[in-house]
Amino acid sequence: MSSTLHQDETFKNKNYAEKRIAGRDFDGCHFDNCDFSAATLSMVDFVNCTFINCNFSNLKWNGVGLKDVQFINCKLVGVDFSVCNDFLFTVTFKECQLDFATFFQKKLKKTKFEDCILKETDFAEVDLTESIFKNCTLEGAVFEKTNLFKADFRTSTNYSIDPEKNIMKKAKFAYPGVLGLLNKYDILVD
Known about the structure:
Layout lengths: L3 E4 L2 E3 L7 E8 L2 E3 L7 E8 L2 E3 L7 E3 L2 E3 L1 E4 L18 E4 L17 E3 L17 E3 L56
């Protein structure tokens, strides 16, 4: 199947809501204020692309490649990243809402989440080695069998992580957020 190639293009104020997009490659493209809510993407590749002020809520995608993709001030509520193509999967998030998103079993080494809301986001069995969570809210986020080796949570809040169920070696925490490592013990700290 041949794909349509879009290279170094800018897409502004486009409405793709509830539409189906298939067989397209986007290389070096910029998307500004585009609506992908409840859209279906299949066999689409995004390489070195930037999404600014875009809505991806309840997006469905299958076999989509995200290679060096930046999401800035985007709404990604309920998005399942676990079904994206693993080949060269690299993403960064700044000022994004990722509530109820799932990254189940993804490799997110050195991924940066900055000023993001990650309420009930699923990081189960994810490799977050050396990832940075800068000024993020992680209320109800799931960390189970997650590799947090050298991950940085120093400026983030509202996380609850069980050190016995995750790889935590050399992970970075700061007070008072570090108390989220004690939640399972139901203790009071003054």
